[in-house]
Amino acid sequence: MLQVEHLSVQFPGGAAPAVEHVSFSLNRGEILGLVGESGSGKSVTAQCLAGLLLPDAEVTGTICLEGQELIGASPAQLRAIRGKEVAMVFQEPMTSLNPVLRVERQVEEALRIHTHLNGRQRRDKALAAMAEAELPDPAALGCRYPHQLSGGQLQRAMIAAALVSEPKYLLCDEITTALDVTVQAQILDLLGKLSRERNMGVLFISHDLRLVKKLCHRALVMRGGRIVETGAVEELFHAPREAYTRRLLDAIPTRDSKLR
Amino acid sequence: MKQRLNPMLLFGGAVSLLTVGAALLGAFWTPYNPTAVSAVEKFCPPSLVHLLGTDNFGRDVFSRVLQGMGASLLIAACVVAIGCLLGTAIGCLCGYFGGPADFLLTRLCDVVTAFPSVLLALVVVSLAGRGTAQIILALGVLFIPSFARLVRGEAARCRDASYIQSARLMGVSHGRILLAHILPNLRGVLVPAIVIGFNNAILSEASMSFLGLGVQPPFPSLGSMLSDSQTYLQRAPWYAFSAGAAIALLILGFSLLGEGLQRRRRA
Q1: Which residue among B162, B169, B188 sits closest to A95, beta carbon to beta carbon?
Q2: Pick from A78, A83, A96: which is nearest to B163 by CB?
Q3: Interface of B with A in 147-166 (CB under 8 A)
Q4: Which domain CATH number covers A222?
Q5: What is the largest CA-CA distance in chain A?
Q6: pLDDT in tens, B6-37
Q7: DSSP letter string, B110-154
Q8: Which residue range forms the structural domain that includes residue A2?
Q9: By the CB < 8 Å criterion, does B3 face chain A?
Q10: Per residue in A15-63, pLDDT tens?
């Protein structure tokens, strides 16, 4: 279980904390949505979980991964966890892959770090992960460079790179934002399937409530660095207790909503 | 993806290939011994016997030019290797880690850049004596800042790119990020910089030898040949012309090649 308790982040010079007393837990096999408007602290929370914050940010609270405390862990301990226990996929697939390295080489990178497999075994695993991420013809795509792939293919390659070392938890920071709607739907299906098959905990960060509703089991609503509401997705969307959640839901355009 | 070779690249490459080929030839075979003196054959004009004539000691100018080009290229290669290796290492560390060490090293590079190259070479020569190794050392140090600055900028740009962040999220160590993720990104800026650096190194070596600080006689060097030939400019114009043309060809080839590579990179 990934357990976060009273997580607060204060940036130097920032008036208010970017994240304040955030507590939640994520079980394996569960998909947890994290929604909120821009600047509500979603990404900072994710960066905290990944230990990617700038060193001068002041982080308090606890992040406990299967009994291991991450806040204050040494760089070597963090490196051992990253990519192996927890993997992360970013918003921008176009810039998340190194432009001068072949795709397959980047998908297998986590294996180079965390395992002692030889080149052929790594390649086989990388191609298997790419196939699992539903990339067509992994062997051919793997030999290409990132600029030769489409956005959706790149995002699948990123997911494959995250999956290759079989992490227990996957952090997805707005991973569908840069993709068009049909690809979004495919990526959501893929995440749902992977989470089920691999018993993997997924933290799905998005500002798009419709996606969260479609994919997640539970959801957290963040505003101004705090969690304002949490609950199962059905409850949250059908009977929001907080006024803010209701306003967020009302902001989803529907077939009947009029253009102003 | 197919790119059309631009004419600059093509011509530069051809000239460079010609000069490097001539220098290689000179390393193994020359028509005459380039240091063999002959009192009878002083100041022979160019002929079929001596293609570029002979100098004031009756030495075959063509043989000397061939070997001189080899010396120039070898020294330039060593100088660029020192500058590129150390400059890239410094630039990578500075750009990636930043902090006070970065500030200090960048300022140090500014100091070295501000130094006139001839002055620094004179300091090295007066401390360590004249010779090829000394001139390589002096020029090598002078070439570090330009590479360091270039690489630093690129490394700093890469550091914040999300592919480096995602590499860090896979548990990749700093050392491996620098070597396996950032270094390949530098190729695009380094290749033209190396060729242009090569060009500058040839020119610098020629000027050092012209001043008598580089390769020591009797071994041929284009700079010192040019310097010697001044005295006999009217009597043996082919001597000055041969040495000058060889330098010009070397520089023309590499500067066109460098410029062409840079244009292709921008395109």
Answers
A1: B162
A2: A96
A3: 161-166
A4: 3.40.50.300
A5: 60
A6: 888 889 889 999 989 988 888 888 888 877 77
A7: HHHHHS-HHHHHHHHHHHH-SSHHHHHHHHHHHHHHHHHHHHHHH
A8: 1-76+206-253
A9: no
A10: 788 888 889 999 998 999 998 888 788 888 888 887 776 667 788 888 8
